[in-house]
Amino acid sequence: MKTETLKINITQRILNINDNKILSKIAKLLDEENIVGYDTEGNPISEKEYTKDIHEALHQLSEGKLETYSSEEVRKKILD
């Protein structure tokens, strides 16, 4: 089945679902599979993982446990 045909078929089936439990399962599956980027090794990063990583980094930053650099410091490290 072509991708576009499959998308239309799935969309029609979803629109006919009235059971919130099933819709929640579909939403969870889509959230887990939503790829928003890739790590340095080329592995996919899901939206859920990305959000978790950002929150963890913000938490570490607020506790002073995250080492940060200014743009100038990064430039010097790269050029030196």
DSSP strand tally? 2
The percent range for strand residues is: 5-15%
Major β-sheet profile: 2 strands, antiparallel
Structural class: mainly alpha
Q: Given the structure, what is the number of helices? A: 4
Order of helices and strands: HHEEHH
Mean pLDDT across the residues is 92
Fraction of residues in helices? Answer: 55-70%
> How would you describe the shape?
elongated
Distance between the termini: 55 Å
Described by its quaternary structure, the protein is single chain
CA radius of gyration is 20 Å
Question: Segments where pLDDT lies below 50 for 5+ residues?
Answer: none
Order of strands, widest sheet? 1-2
Please provide a written account of the structure.
It is a single chain. With about 80 residues, this protein is mainly alpha-helical. Helices cover about 65% and strands about 10% of the residues. It has helices spanning about 5-15, 20-35, 45-60, 70-80, and strands spanning about 35-40, 45. It has a two-stranded antiparallel sheet with strand order 1-2. It starts with a helix and ends with a helix. The mean pLDDT is about 90.
List keywords for this structure.
80 residues, two-stranded antiparallel sheet, 4 helices, 65% helix, mainly alpha
